[in-house]
Structure formats: structure tokens, C-alpha cells
């Protein structure tokens, strides 16, 4: 009886198997297209993406572009310029970054000083950027070599947002013209300030004429001459979407986009609608 | 009548205009009669009822539209318009109990807006679209609030004048998608300093 007990398979000692590499989980063997499809359901759900990214290598590859597509520098603290740019460069993330926003304090300006040799190297590694936002860009201080600092965005950039750009109309348009694939443009000022436009670089002609067929957002915008120059230098305007608040030259803009404008966002709080704007 | 005293005539150089009558100023400034492809007019729920909003602004703008294309009127609702408060904008969390004052004010604002829609519709027909544009974590609750409001109004017959029911939609948002498409510097709405989370 004891013998028969010992002969049972479950009572027998297993001979140890030779050590081998752990078998990959079936989930790791899914075709990459399938993984991409699964991940696409969570692209707005960062916590879930983070969980997915640690499952296996193929899931990490599928999630990382959704986790790191945006980079913002903050006005102060540890995310101040150029900290995040340097960190993401060191992590090798720059090729997957699609949006970059440079936030600065009001007292600061984005000048060539911010782009020393090392920082320019980090900046130039943003080779697939589609959306760029810069606060207080001092365009005139980059002239005439502005192309060397921003030219690498030319093939991919589609959205440009400038908060209170500083420079003459021609200089700003020259900057916009650096990006031949630009579709959307946003120019924002905190207050509508009537100021005499600088006449610097009046002969400056943009290097390209961007299509600018997407969305135009203007806030507290009084630089009528810039719009007039844009119309003449870019051969008209073709925006299909306009978002306008406190804009002095609305009629000019509407008149320039009569054939293309499909969506218009306006605000009843706009002082130009209240009748006592002078 | 736009009082047309432009400084061009008076001073020669400056081209800024002076306006004296509300509706006429709107009519002059936001004349959409030449926009042949216009299909959508958007505004924010907040700006419709904000202090200082021109009362007939949207009606006047609508009256200038001559395009025969069907028109969508999109009203964009932000968090506070639907009783949602966000505690921490860098890692947004909805505050469970919204401020009673905001809720009370919103009740009046909703009624006011619904009346305005009717007045605007008399000027020009449109498809009314109510669009929730809030942070991800507030979308579901905000949709419920808006759907509830519309249901109540429908039950009262408040939308009987529309040729089809109001459409409720929501924008997909996350903090990181917002920083480039929110107007800067005037809404009081913070921009979100979001950074790649692994940094």
C-alpha cells in the first residue's frame, strides 16, 4: 500500500528543471498594431497610460508618445526654463514631443540669452514639434539670425501661440513666415494697448507664406498694421475658424476671410460691442 | 447709427472709431453679411451673462448673417457654469460640494440664457448646441447637470420653438491639451503648468 502511495504521480518529487528564461506573457506577443489600438482608447487617461507603460516593452513603446507629447516650462520653481527642456533631452524624449510651451514671468523676455550654446542644443533636438507657445518672445533681439534658433521647427510646426510678442510688424511676420506649414495662429495680449508700431525692418520679407487655413485666435489685439501687412505679404488670409476678443480690426479680418470662415467665436463681453469703446 | 466720428476725420492720423449706440456698434463691428461660408457661431456661456455683456450682442450679430447655410450656435460651458469647481488645476479634482452661491447664481444664469436663446432664434434660426468644455474628471457630472437642465426646460416647453432639440456635446479635454487653445490673460482661467509626468 505504501508502495502504491509512493507510485502516485503527485507524491513523486519533481526533478528540478534546468533554469531557463521566463516565458513571455501572451500579452507581450500581441501584434504592435493591436497594442496601439488598445492604447488609443486611453490617450486622455494619464493614470491608465502610466499603468500600461509598465506592462512590457511593447506597451511602453505604444504609451510613451501619449505620455510625453507635451512639455511646458513654468514661470518659477523647479520647472523654470530651461529645466524641463534639459531633463526631457537627457531622457531622450525630444523626438516624441509634439507641443512645447515656454511660460515666462511678465518681467522676463524670451531672448537669445535664454538660448546659450547648451540650451540651443536641447532646443534644436525638438525635431517633431507641431505646436509651439512662447511668452514674451523678443523677436527683434533674435534678428537677423532668428532662423538659426527656430528654423528646425519649419518642417513640422502647425500651431504657433505667442503671448505678447515684442517686435515690429515685419519682424513678427518674418518669424511667422519661418514656418511654411503653419495652420493655426494665436496672438494674445493681456491688455489692449495702443502703441505706435515700430518701423524696424520695414523691408523684411517672410521666407515663406504659411497656409494659415486653420484657427486664428486674437485676444486684446490692437495691431491693425500687423493684420494689414499679413494680408499683403501672405496674399490674403484663409482662416476657417476665428476666435476674437477685444480685437480692433475685426472688420478687416472678417472681410479678408469671407470665403473661408466657417466658425466664429465671439464674446458678448467684448468692449467693441458695447459702444463706448473709443 | 454708428457715430462715425473717426479720428481720421478729426485728427488725421489715428484710425480708431467712436461708437455711441450699442446695437449699431455691434452691427458695424461684427458685420457677418459677407461671410459666405459661415456655419457656426460660438460663444461662451459665461460671457453671455457676465457683467458688462452687451445685452443684444448675439441677436445683433445673428441679424447680420446672410449666408443661407444652416447655422449651429454653440454655447461653451466651463466648469463653473455647471456647478463644478476644480480644486487643484495642476492635478484637477472636482470639489464635491460646490459653493451654494455659485449654484444659486447659475440657476438664474441658466434661465437668463434660455430666454436669450429664444430671442436670438426669433432673429435667425439655428441648431442649438450646448458644449461642455471642462477638465476630464468633470465631464460626466457636467453632462448630467446640463442634460438635467435641458430636460426640465423641455418639459416646460421651453424649447418648443426650436426646429430640432438642443444637442449636448462635450470636448475631450485633459490639462495638457488646454494650454494652447484657451485665451490667455482675460478669462481668469488658469493655464495649466503640466509637464511630462515622468520628469
Order of helices and strands of chain B: HHEHHEHEHEH
Radius of gyration of chain B: 19 Å
Going across the biggest sheet of chain A, name each strand in turn. 1-2-3-4-5-6-7-8
Main sheet attributes: strand count, strand direction, barrel closure of chain A: 8 strands, parallel
The proportion of residues forming helix of chain B, as a percent range, comes to 25-40%
Q: Name the overall outline of chain B.
A: globular
The mean pLDDT of chain B is: 74
Give a structural overview.
The complex is a heterodimer of chains A (278) and B (199). Chain A has 278 residues and is α/β, with parallel strands linked by helices. Chain A contains eleven helices and eight strands. In chain A, helix 2 (32-40) crosses helix 4, helix 3 (46-53) packs antiparallel against helix 4 (57-67) and helix 9 packs across helix 10. Chain A starts with a helix and ends in a 13-residue tail after the last strand. The mean pLDDT of chain A is 85. Chain B has 199 residues and is α/β, with parallel strands linked by helices. Chain B has seven helices and four strands, in the order H-H-E-H-H-E-H-E-H-E-H. Chain B has two domains: 1-30, no CATH class; 36-178, no CATH class. A four-stranded parallel β-sheet of chain B has the order 1-2-3-4. The longest helix of chain B is centred in the middle third of the chain and has 24 residues, at 100-123. The model of chain B is unreliable at 1-21 and 175-199 (pLDDT under 50). Chains A and B meet through strand 1, helix 5, strand 4, strand 6 and strand 7 of A and helix 2, strand 1 and helix 4 of B. Strand 8 of chain A pairs parallel with strand 1 (40-44) of chain B, so a sheet runs across the interface.
Features:
heterodimer, A: Leucine-rich repeat, LRR (right-handed beta-alpha superhelix), B: alpha/beta, 2 domains, 35% helix, 11% strand, disordered N terminus, disordered C terminus
Amino acid at each position: 500500500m505504501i508502495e502504491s502511495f509512493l507510485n502516485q504521480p503527485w507524491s513523486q518529487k519533481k526533478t528540478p528543471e534546468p533554469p531557463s528564461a521566463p516565458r513571455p506573457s501572451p500579452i507581450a506577443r500581441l501584434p504592435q498594431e493591436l497594442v496601439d489600438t488598445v492604447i488609443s482608447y486611453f490617450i486622455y487617461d494619464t493614470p491608465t497610460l502610466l499603468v500600461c507603460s509598465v506592462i512590457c516593452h511593447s506597451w511602453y513603446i505604444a504609451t510613451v508618445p501619449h505620455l510625453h507629447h507635451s512639455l511646458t516650462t513654468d514661470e518659477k520653481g523647479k520647472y523654470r526654463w530651461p529645466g524641463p527642456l534639459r531633463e526631457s533631452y537627457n531622457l531622450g524624449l525630444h523626438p516624441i514631443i509634439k507641443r512645447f510651451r515656454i511660460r515666462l514671468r511678465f518681467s522676463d523676455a524670451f531672448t537669445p540669452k535664454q538660448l546659450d550654446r547648451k540650451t540651443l542644443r536641447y532646443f534644436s533636438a525638438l525635431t517633431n514639434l507641431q505646436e509651439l507657445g512662447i511668452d514674451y518672445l523678443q523677436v527683434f533681439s533674435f534678428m537677423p539670425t532668428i532662423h538659426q534658433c527656430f528654423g528646425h521647427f519649419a518642417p513640422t510646426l502647425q500651431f504657433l501661440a505667442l503671448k505678447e510678442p515684442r517686435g515690429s510688424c515685419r519682424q513678427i511676420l518674418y518669424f511667422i513666415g519661418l514656418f511654411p506649414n503653419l495652420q493655426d495662429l494665436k496672438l494674445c495680449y493681456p491688455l489692449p494697448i495702443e502703441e505706435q508700431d515700430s518701423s524696424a525692418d520695414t523691408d523684411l520679407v517672410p521666407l515663406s507664406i504659411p497656409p494659415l487655413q486653420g484657427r486664428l485666435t486674437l485676444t486684446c489685439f490692437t495691431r491693425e498694421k500687423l493684420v494689414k501687412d499679413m494680408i499683403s505679404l501672405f496674399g490674403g488670409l484663409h482662416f476657417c475658424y476665428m476666435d476674437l476678443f477685444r480685437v480692433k480690426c475685426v472688420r478687416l479680418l472678417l472681410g479678408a476671410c469671407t470665403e473661408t470662415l466657417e466658425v466664429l467665436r465671439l464674446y458678448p463681453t467684448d468692449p467693441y460691442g458695447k459702444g463706448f469703446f473709443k | 447709427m454708428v457715430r462715425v466720428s473717426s479720428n481720421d476725420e478729426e485728427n488725421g492720423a489715428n484710425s480708431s472709431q467712436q461708437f455711441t449706440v450699442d446695437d449699431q456698434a455691434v452691427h458695424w463691428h461684427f458685420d457677418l453679411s459677407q461671410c459666405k461660408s459661415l456655419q457656426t457661431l460660438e460663444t461662451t456661456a459665461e460671457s453671455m451673462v457676465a457683467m458688462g455683456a452687451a445685452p443684444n450682442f448675439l441677436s445683433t450679430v445673428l441679424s447680420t448673417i446672410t449666408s443661407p447655410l444652416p447655422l449651429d450656435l454653440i454655447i461653451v460651458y466651463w466648469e463653473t457654469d455647471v456647478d463644478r469647481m476644480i480644486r487643484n488645476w495642476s492635478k484637477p479634482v472636482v470639489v464635491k460640494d460646490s459653493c451654494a452661491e455659485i449654484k444659486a447664481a447659475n440657476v438664474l444664469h441658466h434661465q437668463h440664457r434660455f430666454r436669450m436663446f429664444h430671442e436670438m432664434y426669433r432673429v435667425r434660426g439655428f441648431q442649438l448646441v450646448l458644449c461642455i468644455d471642462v477638465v476630464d474628471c468633470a465631464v460626466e457630472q457636467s453632462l448630467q447637470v446640463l442634460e438635467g437642465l435641458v430636460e426640465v426646460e423641455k418639459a416646460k416647453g421651453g424649447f418648443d420653438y426650436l426646429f430640432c432639440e438642443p444637442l449636448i456635446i462635450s470636448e475631450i479635454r485633459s490639462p495638457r491639451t488646454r494650454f494652447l487653445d484657451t485665451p490667455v490673460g482675460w478669462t481668469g482661467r488658469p493655464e495649466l503648468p503640466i509637464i511630462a509626468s515622468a520628469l
